[in-house]
Structure formats: structure tokens, C-alpha cells
Amino acid sequence: MSRGGPAAAAFIATIVGFGGTVALVVAAAEAVGASPAQTGASIAAVCLVKAVAAAWLSWRHRIPMITAWATAGAALIASTTGLSFEAAVGAYLVASAAVVATAFVKPLGDLVARIPTSIAAAMLAGVVLPFVVQVFVQAAAAPALVLPLILLFLGVRLFNPHMAVVAVLLAGVGLAHLLGLSAPIAGELGLSRFVFVAPSFEWSAVVGLALPLYLVTMASQNLAGFAVLKAAGYPVPARDALAATGLASFAGAFSGSIPLGMAAITASICTGPDVHPDKERRWIAGLWYAGYYVLLAAFAGAVVAILASLPKALIATFAGLGLVGALQGALTGALKEESERFPAVLTLAVTASGVTLYGVGAAFWGLVAGIAALAAQSYRAR
Questions:
Q1: How many CB atoms lie within 10 A of CB 84?
Q2: Structure confidence at residue 127 (pLDDT)
Q3: Given CB 3.0 to 4.6 Å as the disulfide criterion, which of 121, 251, 252, 371 pairs with 45?
């Protein structure tokens, strides 16, 4: 017998995936001007389409194919300024359509593959670095709240990295109430309501948000998720995975859902021998995972209302600590090749600066700067 079983593994994956980064997804919605009702609807939508994609892929291929919202993508959105929610939704639609196109148009996939890993990783590092730094800014501003949570994170991480941020989430809510820093819960605590958002398509949003969002979803979510499946001994139905997550993202975007991708960390929880000794039976974890997310979709509005009552320092701590692992992986990838380190560092610096030029955000300019530096370096070497 397995020690956990599909239901238990899926439950842990759900708690880790949702609890560890939901504050960041809420921050992303708020950064582009979503109202509380729209924010609750966007969380409900992303949970629901995530459940549908995971259930269909797992059932279709008899593989535990776990989906996730693009955490790095949420960080990218949360760092965006000057966009309306409608323009952001238009960018989500474009990014989702690009993922679907990648599944069926080989030249597009080849073009993405030609972007150096170091540059893509550096862009990702530049996106998430300000959020991690903000943890320590908040530690200075609210030491009684944040410092104990940092220590808790470091302690739990020694024994179970997957549960470290979840432990911070649970302890942080209690500590904020104990210190009298939480506001009364405002908003509905009942079932979620979906809100239709009519998208608008602005060139600055398409270039400055949709393109980087597509790239980080592919690099930080899908490629990493495929690697987890390969490591577990499963074939990777990449075309179906891209098509399903892209179409699900496209449908969910009309309620404000951020794009989906294949999960990596949570997928590793559902693909190992603890799930079931027979790897051919582990796919059932994907169905359990989908079921749990349907429940979360039903009560997403309540989750958003509770998070809104918490102090901003606590939300920043949740988001930043949840991205430490992503920053570690991105820096490793960015600096791996010695010959590409200067362009990678330049990409990171421009992206982390948050600069906006001609209405286009820093992630795009970081990508441009890194590729230009790498091209110049390669030309000189000839």
C-alpha cells in the first residue's frame, strides 16, 4: 500500500499550490485594477478551468497531469502598472492563444526554443526578485509580524519545502489577528459569482504583458512541468497539454483568469511512489486534484475577502516567500553558462528595474536588452 494515496497526495498538492501563491494571484488582479468582485471571480475562474484541464488531461492520458496557474506570470502581472483590467484580460487572451498556437504551429515552438535559456531565466528572475526583496522591506516596517514568519519559513523548509509557505500562511493569519493588525472581513463569504469582463486589446498590453506572460508560462511552467513527468517515467503529451491549458486559459480569461500551465512542484507530489506503488494508477490523483479545485472555485470569493482583511505587510510576505524557490531556479538557469552571464545579468537588471518605456513594461525591455547584448557579443566573437 502507498503511504498517502491519490486523494491524500492531491489534497497536499492543492494546499501547497493554492495556499502558497493565492495571495500573489490576488495581488496580480488588484495591480491591474480589478474590483473585489472581479478579483473573486478571477480566482474562481482560474480554479475552475485548472480543474477542468487537469481532469481531462489525466483521464485522457491516464497520467497524473497536474495544472497550475502561472506563478511567475502572476508576479509579472502584479508588477505591471498603467493597465486597465480590460486591457490585462486582452493580454491574457493573446498569451493563451499563443500557447494554443504553439501546440499546432511548429515554427512558433521552434522560435520560442531559440530564445536562450539564460535570457528567459534572467527575465523570470528579474520579475520575481522585487517580490522577494519586499519581504525584507516589510520585515523592517513590521518586524513583530514578519520576522517570526521568516524564521518559521526557514525552519519548516528544512523538513518540508513544499509546506513552508503554507505554514507561513496559516501562522501569519493567526499572528496578524493576535497583534490586532487585521481589519474586519468585508465582502461576501458565500458561493463565488462569475463576472464577465469585456477585453480590450492595446498594443502596449500585447507587447508589454502578453508576450512576456507567454514566455514565462512556457519557460517556468510548461517546460518544468514536462520535466517532472519525464523524471517520473511518463511520456509527455506536450501537444495535448499545451492545447488544453491554452484553451482553458482562453475560456477563463473572460472572467479574469490568469493563464495556466503544467505544474512542476505540485506535480512532483502527485507523480511519486507515495501516491500509488503502481504508476499506472497514479493518474487518479489528477481527478482528486480537479475535485478539490472545484470546491475552491465555489468559495474563491470568501478566500479573497479574508485575504483583503489582512495587512499588506503580510500579503507581501506570503507572495515573496512563495517566490524564493522560483528565484533560486531562475538564477541558476540565468548564470549557468559563463559565456552568457553578462547578457543574463543585463536582462535581470532591466527587468527588475520596473522601467516602462512607450507604455511597454520592463519584462519586454529586459528581454530585448539581453538578446541584443548576446547578439553583439556573438558578433564580436566571430
A1: 14
A2: 76
A3: 252
Rounded CA-CA distance 130/152 in Å is: 21
Q: In whole angstroms, what is the distance from residue 147 CA to residue 161 CA?
A: 18
> Are the beta carbons of 296 and 303 closer than 8 angstroms?
yes
CB proximity list for 178: less than 8 A, separation 6 or greater: none
Residue type, 224: A
Instruction: Please tell me the predicted confidence (pLDDT) of residue 112.
Output: 65
Would you call 352 helix, strand, or coil by DSSP? helix
CB 265 within 8 A of CB 325: yes
pTM over 0.85: no
Residue 8: helix, strand or coil by DSSP?
helix
* Distance separating alpha carbons of residues 64 and 255, to the nearest angstrom: 27
For residue 167, what pLDDT is reported?
A: 86
Strand partners, 67: 262
Residues of the chain under the 50 pLDDT cut: 1-3
Beta pairing partners, 69: 260
Give me the pLDDT at residue 187, please.
62
Tell me which DSSP letter residue 49 carries.
H
pLDDT reported for residue 115:
73
Beta partners for residue 261, in sequence order:
68
- Determine the Cα–Cα distance for residues 128 and 24; give it in Å rounded to an integer: 11
Report the SS3 class of residue 69. Answer: strand
Q: What's the rounded Cα separation, in Å, for the pair 254 and 34?
A: 13
C-alpha closest to that of 133 among 353, 320, 349, 305: 320
What pLDDT was estimated at residue 109? 67
- pLDDT score for 320: 83
Residues 190, 209: Cα–Cα separation, whole Å: 33
What CA–CA distance (Å, rounded) separates 33 from 205? 14
The residue ranges of DSSP E strands in the chain, in sequence order, are 67-69, 260-262
- Asked if 282 and 275 touch (Cβ cutoff 8 Å), the reply is yes
